[in-house]
């Protein structure tokens, strides 16, 4: 594990080789399979992060606004539930806009916290951390660090704590509805991995999970409107990332479009690439033919019902202690506990 010093903070490179080489294989396997798919991690390179941040400002993208509303209200409750001197790990931290609200509450309450922001793209992580560090430069309470890697890398990092790493309690912050970008079964197994890692390192923990339970299809489709240039550019940037991963220009802008579909049974919004003509791509030694209009899945954004989120978390051994909703009852944050010692 390398330590990369940014301006004033520490960023740890916790990536394991396996994840990046896998991405190339995932593209080949996914495009060869039916239904066709691409790995959603392609969306989150440095450019993808910048494009997402711009898109998230769109007035119809209610997720950011609703979550900001809730976090501004409950930041002090979150702090009250984190023991003094404990650790806060944010999974898929993004631009840290929401984190700033929580860290300011730690400062206000004069409660010590070691914060670790985890994300997959280095430049964005470094830039976001540097601006957060500026705010807390004189702080005796808030220590800011970065973790460069994936959720899986993070579980391996926790499991590798040495005996003299005194981390008694970790609060995992998993907000922005990122939980519902995964399949339900993958969420369950990831939560189990975190549980094993914390058990191995003798750490108690809690999760603070922000999930979108909006059940108004019209509102959802308006938020994720592919005619919105910002959203469209964000999605299609995943094809540029695929070119970077495969090392050649397999995917040409002129050949591809994108679309979304709402699955009313599963309460999920599915996002796809679709070719504008019949195409044939040589990749990983395979020639793959994709017909005009065929759907290639890139990412899902679950709009899971509250009971479904709870069921997934409780199956993984987490107990619900608090739940907070926005004023329209569309979005909620929940605090889930696990005392494993
Ligand atoms: C929907 S954005 C949410 C960002 C931020 N948490 C927020 O609330 O605005 C999802 C974030 O998760 C990160 N992410 C996606 N898959 C990841 C993975 N497997 N491991 C770590 N981070 C991941 C992305 O890079 C992105 O920053």
UniProtKB/TrEMBL annotation:
Top-level lineage group: Eukaryota
Residue ranges constituting the Histidine-specific methyltransferase SAM-dependent domain according to the UniProt record: 24-333
NCBIfam families xref list: methyl_EasF
GO molecular function list: methyltransferase activity
UniProt keywords, alphabetically: Methyltransferase, Transferase
InterPro entries noted in UniProt: EgtD_Methyltrsf_superfamily, MeTrfase_dom, MeTrfase_EgtD-like, SAM-dependent_MTases_sf, SAM_MeTrfase_EasF-type_put
Annotated GO biological process: methylation
Protein name as catalogued: Histidine-specific methyltransferase SAM-dependent domain-containing protein
Family label: Belongs to the methyltransferase superfamily.
Keyword Transmembrane helix belongs to the record: no
Keyword Translocase in record: no
